[in-house]
Write a structure and sequence with these properties.
The complex is a heterotetramer, with two copies of chain A (629 residues) and two copies of chain B (350 residues). Chain A has 629 residues and is of the alpha/beta class. Chain A has four domains: 194 residues, Pyruvate-ferredoxin Oxidoreductase, domain 3, CATH 3.40.920; 183 residues, Thiamin diphosphate (ThDP)-binding fold, Pyr/PP domains (Rossmann fold, 3-Layer(aba) Sandwich), CATH 3.40.50.970; 73 residues, no CATH class; 124 residues, Rossmann fold. Chain A contains 21 helices and 23 strands. Chain A has a seven-stranded mixed sheet, with helices on both faces. A six-stranded mixed sheet of chain A has the order 3-4-2-5-6-7. The N terminus of chain A is likely disordered. With 350 residues, chain B is of the alpha/beta class. Chain B is built from twelve helices and 13 strands. In chain B, strands 2-1-3-4-8-7-13-9 form an eight-stranded mixed sheet, sandwiched between helices. In chain B, helix 3 packs parallel to helix 5. The longest helix of chain B is centred in the N-terminal third of the chain and has 15 residues. The N and C termini of chain B lie far apart (70 Å). In chain B, 61% of the residues are buried. The chains are: A alpha/beta (629), B alpha/beta (350). At the A-B interface, strand 9, helix 8, helix 10, helix 12 and strand 17 of A face strand 2, helix 3, helix 5, helix 10 and helix 11 of B. Strand 17 of chain C pairs parallel with strand 2 of chain D, so a sheet runs across the interface. Bound molecules: thiamine diphosphate (TPP) (2 copies), iron/sulfur cluster (2 copies) and magnesium ion (2 copies). The site of one iron/sulfur cluster has 12 residues of chain D, from loops.
Chain lengths: 629, 350, 629, 350
């Protein structure tokens, strides 16, 4: 095969399967960041969605603004496998000369490489076992457009058009998407559709379209939506009644606030005055950001902030203050790969311990673990209730994958009958009735005391809120008994907390399965697929998805049930140090040997392949140990 | 400090417009050292609030950490207070104020709290033009940790332990002026006659009001050689203008000698009457104020009084265009867009 | 008994024992802070020391400068019990009208209350079962002195003089102490001795001296010293070669730096130039303080900082940077009672988890746990070697009790043959020889790489130090494989670390005892006494004192050996949440049920009484559980 | 940005006194956006170091976090660098400098890094008079996090996303002047002719040298309406004086017109020649400099050039009286007092 041949006509070297591969494959786009590829790639994913086929997308981008390699991985799966699969991709769109060598290597045998053939490939770039689809995209753009920015931008649209032909996508639907996307900027619609058609026609003219890998319309999406978690979180905060935000930009949490702000601009303007029913301050750093939330929480408004990595560390002192003074507020932690600056644009679940025990001294924080945009919305709204009811910070543990990637999710749900739960806040009337008011009096014996807000009552209920030891009446004390009493009450409050927190999601077979898988957040995405593969290996699996810390009793039960002799519990997490396992062991007093860890911490969302291999490996190891031991 | 507080009340203590006596503005018993300047600030605040007939419960007291930051516990018992963490009061004040713009925010900080650990927060809350009274009890040392030099200590002075202040000192008034504060003053805890009207004006001012109050630490910085001792301050204090504060309701009766006296009308209609003692005094010129402050400092003097006032300044909420109804009073009706709106939003994700 | 009688003559109401009580009791001084009592009380303790009797002292002071209650507890014990005992005191010197009611209640039946009888006691203050020693101290001072400050100060000296008579202390020795104390301020010697004599004579004239409780000279101190841990730590840093300090004042760590500074002023002036061989900067906050240490560590100087409570939280982000970029530095954490501002002048061991896992992401830090001033000195000096050898921060976990109280300790030891261990730092010559230099190349397969210092070589060895993911050559990378490789190497380094760390101190009977006690730091002080009491209950005890994290293998062995059926391992710690137990369980994969926690967290140093009662209580509970279960 | 760097070297590239070419001062390939102002600063630094014949390995490069803070990776490959955490470079620089006063400390920060999160550290390192060159690449936005407004953005401007800058902007030069910096200048990344001599002078200056460098962010703040765009800066830049830098070894040949030109001798004997373009220019008067800066700002102009120079200023080590031998070079002999001394110390505890 010569380069010339590759440029014009496809020559099928190898096939993935003898049959057609329909609706079950991965397309990976390799681009340079800052060239506008993400929106074209997203258009591709959304077109699949509108064809009724389950789809998910991972944007793998650098910590840099322009000119570095970036990838966008679209998984199409009518089996509803929405996590990453692992392994090589069926189709790679290789638009970045920097990374093309690696990209060529990551095409699956029998798969396709769509590349810009304006420049010939090197001999070393030719693999005999894959198929090359060369389109002279740069040359086409050079001919079609004069503006350099357009020459750049439309490259991306052209390959989407070509893919439409190759994969037999609904072209009308794609055009509809362009119209939706540029609503309000009508001038852009025609040139975009034109670019789509350039690609579409080129592919149809030069290749046998569609390929043996292709899509077919289905009705498998039902009312699900494709959205990123940060958008849903921002919206959840609007619905949850948050009015005040202090924040400081940091990837990957920034868009939580940006989305909150843009929804507020639409949904939170006072109809009478046209004024804002919210206040967002971009402050000087993360210490100030959480300070704002705490000040507002003290004063009775629902407030939150969002941050990542280094921001969490910087908020540590204030988290301790809020825990000890019992001030409600919500912190959204969109985790990224640590330690330190780490890999700011890679995902991880590695702040579990840093958040659970945030701050010096004996502190414990409430954590919530959403796993989908739908749940981000729900849990964020709920977090404000929980914080108010428990009078303590609530940390929502999202991550870059959940926050910034588009996930196929149940739609967002709000019951209009639902009422904000503001917890134990005394009104002026209630204060009048109360005989003695003590801010830290455990009246209900649940560890949660009654609080008052500034300005409520002319004479009663005022107290001096402080991070120092205090007695029941918020008076400063260094008396050991007072101190211990207060600390033990806080422990009691933490037990009470469990009743307010979302319970774990458990799937359990009739007869307890051989394997118990425990996971949380985005680690749940590849689970369905992993379970199916484990079944192929004759292994049955029960699962438990943790949704909150402190832990519900049934987590302990699940572990007990699944750690009998011929069973095994695995804890899947995306960090090096098995942080969730540590938390389970500590807080539930569980023998750590009952829990085997599956740890994926390379910064990319964990794959089903990784999970299955790790589980099989550990089970095999156990077999060996049994035999030899 | 005495640890048993007399509960005796004089039957004929003067009452203000709310029918409250001075006692109604007091707080817990001070645990500061006997003679600490901060206690005098406390009593000036009590007097100012009483004279202004401020409803104590309509005040929110804020502070960081330090002897000075304990002070809010010693005034206005009926007001909620928030003793936050060291140097971070400004952010807490921001959140509190954003939540409820109807309260009066009285904040107390120290020079360690605001010029060292909290300098970043200080600078940014000034920029933000938060409607608050920000007082720094400036004693040139860290009282609570036993006398280390603060960043406001004059270069070249020694603390009680004999450590020399080696670096350029930070003048928080100059910084506040530079960063856009709309009310900037300096006073002395030992000079109630000057301090009380300044406090009253600051409380009546809408926008960010900063008062640096020289407040001697009798235990760690009252030795000879200190420039924050009672003796030194008494000997070196100068004032650019004497201010008097006339609340909105009172009629102005005293005559006004145009050249030497000026009336500035504050946003709530109250009047700040300024009697110039120095000819070049001009409280509407921030740059000039900085020059004046530094000129006096070079001469070894401490210039006090009102430095700058922008009576029509905006505060954060005006700039932000926040609803007049305090955000913490909004109910679910106005906060939650409801399920119908959500249907449309869900559609945008398909 | 009338008040008048109490003022002049002692009338023994009750006796603690029929025999004399010699060299085995507690004297507790109740004063007002800011009145100069601490130095008089300290003089009392030191006099006991010079009489050759083991003694220890606890200063229980408020977070305030003047006018609040403060106590000083001196334990005299020829049995060498140096921890707190618990329970009431044999003698109380009650000089504070604010606290006198409580003070009277805390005299042991048969014990003595020494008080200022210038003002008569109330009837409610009379207990029939204790003995009152009234001295009209204020009146004496009013008569003797005109200066108000003197009237205040000499009160304290007077009661020390009186105690000398009552307890039959060596008066010449006391006078010698005064002379030592006021060396350089000779003018103060005579009036102080005069005040001592005032008290001494008054007691001799009005009471039957000595009492049945008294001291007798012994030779039980040998070469031990009485000093606080912070002094020893500051000195350890001088000996360990620290040259640079960034710091921010905070109780109870401040004196570490103050002592370092004052020893440097004496011992670190360049003899030739008279200039400083050190630099100490009081910076703007704790973030800057640790930043200074890190910058200096990167540049090859030995640097440290000291902090407590909130400061630890504020240093979190930088601790993560230092861990990930592998920069040596030492942090002295003098723990106090948390959370938040907590009780700043009370002790605790509650930053174990906050320090071990300091910072977001997967981080682990090296911890050292000294338990005496002698060890503070040794471990601090050693910490600089460890930090340099491991290229990572080392956190010395002291606490308020250890740092600020005077302890009877082995003397400070320095071997002149000892050499600073600077670890793997390449010189220019070595760089010339090295073929390829990679800052993060694991050449020796121990996880510790070679580093270079700025300015070493004109052409080789320079690299860009960063908190982001990097490859072996310190180049920025977002490649998963590079990231994982580096993270796993850091785990390996942490295993290597164990070889550099002080091993636990184990006392083990020939046959494994029934009880295994694990503890660390100041929790070890009451152990000798506790063991003796447990023996009285028929219980034999082995002990293990943890001195470092990560943990040595023999800790695991100790736990295994002591957790067989009829044995029990207890972990004693001074925090609410059993933080050390958590760390043991996590890191050694130990079943948490093997470890029973003894938790004392009221802010005062743990007592032997508390330990014994808790252990007996838990054992009794276990018995009941066994019977019923 | 191109990702393959040519390794071709022109055989006759000019060499400096050390025999090094410009190439010897380069760093890794930039990953910043094509046209980013920060890359121009990088090349000005390279040129300045080359012309001054600085031994690259005798430099320590420092930075915080941001696009600007990446820049040190792109110059002086043979110098060690420390890319620290966001806003905390000044403390790291302090520690590094304390450890070895013999290196040249070149620090690069951004306006987010220095005026927001790092404002406290910035202020305090200025006070400390650390001997370093502190450069801020001032683009008015947070580049790396995609264009949020920085605290240096002029009040009233909008960023690319359309957000309005609501609050008083922080002028870091004014702050540095106020806090006691001994060398303060402003320049423009697009004006190498001005920037290079200023950098050279700053590097030769002993004490704290601050240069605020307007450095447009082409991706997020180069739109019309921005006051940090190339177009705006080109149109509004004014200079008080043109400076030229004459290294210590070179003889001064150009004639010197006394009224308009002034030679300032730096501590190492090199000369800063200043040609005044504005009559009231006086680089020895910090207060005047502040007034000038603000006057121009009110007029919508950006004043650049050398604002203030105190050629005989002290640095931290002089003030501290540190030994001349770098502390990181001291050996155990001079650091460890040994066992004999310890015996005496033990005695003091008995
Ligand atoms: C994060 C933190 N660091 C240090 C401290 C210890 N500390 C308490 S008060 C104080 C300084 C107080 O000085 P200043 O603000 O001037 O108040 P003053 O006591 O002089 O009135 C310090 C350093 C602390 N509480 N928190
Ligand atoms: C503690 C912390 N907070 C936030 C961030 C995210 N962050 C990275 S760079 C940056 C701002 C950079 O702005 P600037 O200093 O002006 O540099 P520029 O990119 O504009 O050159 C922020 C907020 C971070 N890395 N660390
Ligand atoms: S130490 Fe100083 S500042 Fe603190 S209370 Fe005493 S006098 Fe006041
Ligand atoms: S985003 Fe702006 S500051 Fe960052 S590299 Fe691009 S142009 Fe430069
Ligand atoms: Mg102070
Ligand atoms: Mg910037």
């Amino acid at each position: 095969m010569t380069n010339a041949a590759k440029n014009t006509e496809i020559e099928v070297n190898s096939k993935i399967t003898d049959k057609l591969l329909i609706n079950e494959f991965v397309v990976r786009f390799a681009n340079t960041n800052g060239t506008g590829s993400a929106s074209a790639n997203n258009m591709f994913a959304k077109a699949i969605l509108r064809m009724g086929i389950p789809v998910s997308a991972k944007n793998i981008f650098p910590s840099n603004i322009q000119g570095m390699p970036t990838w966008y991985e679209v998984r199409i799966s009518e089996k509803n496998y929405l996590g990453r699969r692992g392994g090589k991709s069926e189709i790679i769109v290789a638009m970045n000369a920097q990374s093309i060598d690696d990209d060529i290597m990551s095409v699956q045998t029998g798969g396709y490489l769509l590349y810009d053939s304006s420049r010939a490939l090197l001999d070393s770039q030719i693999r005999a076992d894959i198929n090359y689809l060369g389109i002279p995209i740069s040359n086409i753009c050079l001919k079609e457009y004069s503006d350099p920015r357009q020459r750049q931008l439309f490259k991306n649209v052209i390959y989407v058009g070509a893919l439409a032909a190759m994969l037999s996508m609904d072209f009308t639907l794609l055009k509809g998407l362009v119209r939706d996307q540029f609503k309000g900027k009508e001038k852009l619609i025609t040139p975009n559709i034109y670019a789509l058609e350039l690609g579409y026609q080129f592919a149809n003219e030069h290749f046998i379209c569609p390929l043996d890998i292709r899509v077919e319309s289905r009705d498998l999406v039902s009312n699900r939506i494709l959205v990123d978690g940060n958008t849903a979180t921002g919206l959840g905060a609007v619905y949850g009644g948050a009015t005040i935000v202090g924040w400081y930009p940091i990837t990957p949490s920034t868009s939580v606030i940006e989305k909150f702000a843009s929804y507020c601009q639409r949904l939170r303007i006072d109809p009478a005055s046209g004024k804002k029913n919210y206040a967002i301050v971009q402050v000087e750093d993360e210490l100030a950001a959480i300070g704002v939330a705490i000040g507002a929480g003290w004063n009775g408004a629902r407030a939150f902030t969002a941050t990542s990595g280094p921001g969490v560390s910087l908020m540590t002192e204030f988290l301790g203050l809020a825990y000890f003074t019992e001030i409600p507020m919500v912190l959204v932690n969109v985790q990224r790969s640590g330690p330190s600056t780490g890999m700011p644009t890679r995902t991880q679940q590695s702040d579990v311990l840093a958040c659970a025990y945030a701050s010096h001294g004996d502190t414990k924080q409430i954590l919530l673990f959403p796993d989908s945009p739908g749940e981000c919305f729900e849990i964020t709204a709920q977090a404000f209730d929980i914080a108010d009811q428990l009078q303590t910070p609530v940390i929502i543990m999202s991550d870059l994958d959940l926050g910034m990637n588009d996930h196929l999710s149940e739609e967002l749900v709000w019951q209009d009958s639902r009422e904000y739960q503001k917890g134990k806040v005394l009104s002026a009337e209630q204060l009048d009735e109360v005989e003695v008011f003590g801010r830290y009096l455990d009246v209900d014996d649940d560890g949660i005391c009654y609080r008052t807000l500034p300005g409520t009552h002319p004479d009663k209920g005022a107290y001096f809120n402080r991070g120092t030891s205090r007695n029941h009446f918020a008076g400063y004390t260094e008396k050991s008994a007072d101190y211990v009493d207060n600390m033990e009450r806080l422990t009691k409050k933490f037990s009470t907390a469990i009743h307010f927190l979302p319970a774990p999601e458990i799937t359990q077979s009739k007869q307890t399965a051989q394997l118990g898988l425990i996971f949380f957040g985005t680690s749940s995405h590849p689970i369905t697929e992993a379970i199916d593969h484990l079944k192929e290996h004759g292994l049955t699996t029960d699962t438990l998805r943790i949704r909150a810390f402190p832990f519900h009793q049934n987590i302990e039960d699940f572990i007990e049930e699944h750690s009998l002799s011929n069973k095994q519990v695995f804890v899947i997490e995306q960090n090096r140090d098995a942080q969730m396992k540590s938390l389970l062991v500590n807080e539930l007093q569980i023998d750590p040997n009952k829990l085997a860890s599956i740890l994926s911490f390379d910064g990319l969302p964990v794959t089903s392949q990784f999970i299955v291999e790790a589980i099989l490996g550990k089970l095999a190891q156990r077999q060996i140990n049994k035999k030899t031991g | 400090m005495s640890f048993i507080k007399s509960t005796f009340r004089h039957p004929r203590l003067p009452v203000n417009d709310l029918g409250l006596t001075y006692r109604d503005y007091e707080g817990a018993l001070s645990t500061l050292c006997a003679g600490c300047g901060h206690d005098s600030i406390t009593s000036a605040i009590i007097q100012a609030c009483h004279e202004l007939s401020i409803q104590p419960s309509e005040v929110a007291k804020l502070s960081g950490i330090g002897c000075s930051s304990k002070a809010p516990n010693y005034f206005l018992n009926k007001a909620h207070g928030f003793n936050s963490v060291h140097g971070r009061m400004p952010s807490v004040a921001t959140g509190a104020n954003l939540a409820n713009q109807d309260l009066l925010y009285l904040a107390m900080s120290g020079d360690g709290d605001s010029a060292s650990i909290g300098f970043g927060q200080f600078a940014h809350v000034v920029r933000r033009q938060l409607n608050m009274v920000y007082m720094v009890a400036n004693n040139g040392v860290y009282g609570l940790t036993k006398g280390q030099l603060a960043a406001t200590a004059d270069k070249g002075v020694k603390n009680k332990a004999g450590d020399l202040s080696l670096f350029t000192d930070i003048d928080l008034c100059v910084m506040a002026l530079q960063l856009g504060a709309s009310f900037v003053a300096r006073s002395f805890s030992g000079d109630k006659q000057q301090l009380v009207p300044l406090l009253k004006a600051a409380m009546s001012h809408k926008g960010f009001a900063f008062i640096d109050i020289v407040s001697p630490c009798v235990t760690f910085n009252n030795h000879s050689g200190s420039t924050r001792s009672y003796d030194y301050v008494h000997d070196h204090i100068t004032t650019a203008a004497v201010t008097d504060f006339v609340p909105v309701k009172k009629e102005i009766t005293s005559s006004c000698d145009s050249g030497e006296s000026e009336d500035v009308c504050l946003h709530d209609g109250s009047i700040m009457r300024i009697k110039k003692l120095q000819t070049d005094y001009d409280c509407s010129n921030a740059s000039q104020a900085i020059v004046d402050i530094e000129k006096h400092k070079k001469a070894g003097d401490i210039l006090t009084g009102l430095f700058y006032l922008e009576p029509t300044a905006s505060d954060f909420h005006e700039i932000n265009d926040t609803n007049d109804m305090p955000l913490n009073k909004l109910t679910q009706d106005s906060l939650c867009p409801g399920s119908r709106v959500l249907t449309g939003i869900n559609d945008s994700f398909r």
